[in-house]
Amino acid sequence: MIRRRVVVSGTVQGVGFRYSARLEADRLGVSGWVRNRDDGTVEAEVEGDEESVVALLDWLALGPPGATVRELRVEELAVSGEPGFRVIG
């Protein structure tokens, strides 16, 4: 199990990014959360087996139709055992 914090910048708000990310996380069996930040970026924490987390990070680097991802910043976190994946805000 691994956990990562991700900050996604670009055209990522107002395009269904958070809800699409939740659907993809659910499909992959990844837990955590996603939210919009005041600076126009999207932040997420994702946790699961390495293959599934990497798959979600790959998806976040592209985003849903209508999004334009310019940068993905990723940092390692300690695993928390958080259940499910939710949209905050």
Count all strands and give the number: 5
What is the CATH topology descriptor? Alpha-Beta Plaits
**What is the residue-averaged pLDDT?**
97
Q: Which spans have pLDDT < 50 for at least 5 consecutive residues?
A: none
Our count of helices gives 2
Q: Going across the biggest sheet, name each strand in turn.
A: 4-1-3-2-5
Structural category is alpha+beta
Number of domains: 1
Q: Distance N terminus to C terminus?
A: 26 Å
Radius of gyration: 12 Å
**H/E element sequence:** EHEEHEE
Largest sheet: 5 strands, mixed
CATH class: Alpha Beta
Give an overview of the whole structure.
The structure is a single chain. This protein is α+β, with helices and mostly antiparallel strands and 89 residues long. It has a single domain (2-79), classed as Alpha-Beta Plaits. Helices cover 28% and strands 42% of the residues. The protein is built from two helices and five strands, in the order βαββαββ. The protein has helices at residues 17-28, 50-62, and strands at 2-11, 31-36, 42-48, 68-77, 85-88. Strands 4-1-3-2-5 form a five-stranded mixed beta sheet, with helices on one face. The longest helix is centred in the middle third of the chain and has 13 residues, at 50-62. The protein is globular.
